[in-house]
Amino acid sequence: MRIAACLGAAIVALFAAFPASSDVRIKDIATFEGVRENQLVGYGLVVGLNGTGDSLRNSPFTEKSIEAMLERLGVGNMSDDKIKTSNTAAVMVTAMLPPFARLGSPIDVVVSSLGDATSLRGGTLIVTPLTGADGEVYAVAQGPIAVAGYAAQGMAASVVEGVPTVARIENGATVENEVEFVLSSLNSVRIALRNPDFTTATRMADAINKRMGTNTATALDPGTVEVALHGAGKGDIAGIMSDVENIRVDPDAVAKVVIDARSGTIVIGEDVRIDRVAVSQGGLTVMVREDPEVSQPEPITIGGTTVVVPRTTVGVDEQETHFTILEGADVSLQRLVDALNAIGLTATQTISILQAIKAAGALHADLEII
Description:
- One of its GO terms (biological process) is bacterial-type flagellum-dependent cell motility.
- The protein contains seven helices and 25 strands.
- The chain is α+β, with helices and mostly antiparallel strands.
């Protein structure tokens, strides 16, 4: 059986292994408004590198940073002195501040080279303030760097594995400032769906009302459900949110076909349907082969010249084509895949067929190419 048939069988088996629809927890398809991470960024220096740091001639900002750091540490003004160190690298430090992070909590940071350093292995990050979008300092990072990649080079060859100019420091920063967010001050909690959909939002509101009481939840729009906090439970907002996020909902989704043309991957959603169409797929293969020959009509001793005589062979192979009927819009996903497999297509040909069916207006689904 051809590649497409094997792929189609795998798709059918995948969908057969799971029920057509399944209930999922609200926490798996939505988030609570205001409960989110915040991005932090900072600029710092990594020292202690074994000659793999920035070349100060190509990275003048590194030299300026070294001078400023030494001046802050009481070494004095070194602007008139020429620094020639190669064991320091300028880096950008990024981190995610978790929701409700408290003073003194550790967070992970990522360190990325900013100059022309070849590796950060063995280095140590010097105290680096991390600021948020509002310019306030929320954490301070420092510590030894762990690099997953490596680089080795000689006079005529080099080997690089991974990215040695990007590193991670586990628990490398300490929270110094908290993001103000008081749950007890809320009169309602809004739930934001990761994939906005009217049907899913309505089902979610109905499920919450069934569990928490009538008129507790309202679907404001396809992406937002508001849960009112009233009565005796208002003082226990964390408990209410815990109950809400564990309620199970049957989410709905738009019928979609996703195609990755680079790898030939095709994912067909359960609700994808097509009109009854006839499909024919054929191809014309033209092969051109060059077989040049060397001709020596006269001996070289009497002035003969060697010439190359071109020889070209052209062949044409036309595949036999036939029509296959793809069933109408009321068929299941398995029958649709079986019909595509019956044509005997490769993954690339299947992609072309799906695009043509969409262009003909017979594919009732979104066609997304990534």
